[in-house]
Amino acid sequence: MKPIRKAVIPVAGLGTRFLPATKAQPKEMLPLVDKPVIQHVVEEAIHAGIESVILVTGRGKGAIENHFDVAYELEDTLSRRGRQDDLRQIQAITQLGRFAYVRQGEPLGLGHAVLCAQPTVGSESFALLLGDDVFDEADPALSALIKAHHESGVSVVGVQQVPLEHVSRYGIVNAPPNGDRWWKVHQIVEKPSPELAPSCWAVVGRYVLTPRIFHHLLALQPGVGGEYQLTDALAKLAEEGLLAATPIPAKRYDTGNKLDYLKANVEFALKREDLGPEFKAYLKGLTTSF
Length: 290
Prior knowledge:
- With 290 residues, the chain is α/β, with parallel strands linked by helices.
- The protein contains 11 helices and 14 strands.
- 36% of the residues lie in helices and 21% in strands.
């Protein structure tokens, strides 16, 4: 089976949950300590063997393109000031991989965003990564899906178990029959109520998709709010026996809401050798003050 060389990352969302911070900057550029969320996602893709990253952008997302582009003035200034460590760090961002940008003219849903990337993806299988979910870099995330795709030969969704009271926030798939490393999906439901959920296995923002997905995306009818839902196309793949699920072993950080975003910043800071010890001591002292 051919390697997965391309990744699609939709970044056209308005980020309304983080207003006013996202009024003039993309939500994907919000930092986890000092590295934007989008860079964490791109680095995960590159570490999994991806060569080309296709970012589906929209109006007001120029900062994302600039972040992965060469910054001549900044690099020159850092060089002249002898700040070689900072210079190497900045240059490494532009050398992560090949980048392409596709414009989503209207916010018509995740399915529509993926469809916008079709001309650039072509007729090969590809990875899809959503920026709200960031995974611990110490464990494989996308790599686990690529392995399951190569073994199964079909599209794969990455899943993790969530509390029953949280299933209404996610797309939910049927549970594994025998605790297998990956299993066929025959049911996928978008944001079900707890009593109707087929399991507690939630799709958490990582996919490896075959070109067959585009066939179903093209045939979709708009749903609630006029949006084209990726889950509807995935359900069609499941009906054909062409969809599998595999657990993601890495710890997940949900940066899509304010509280979990704050928690992610704290944990990422604590892992840093240059910040962790002093920050941990600060937090211990802070807890005694409240």
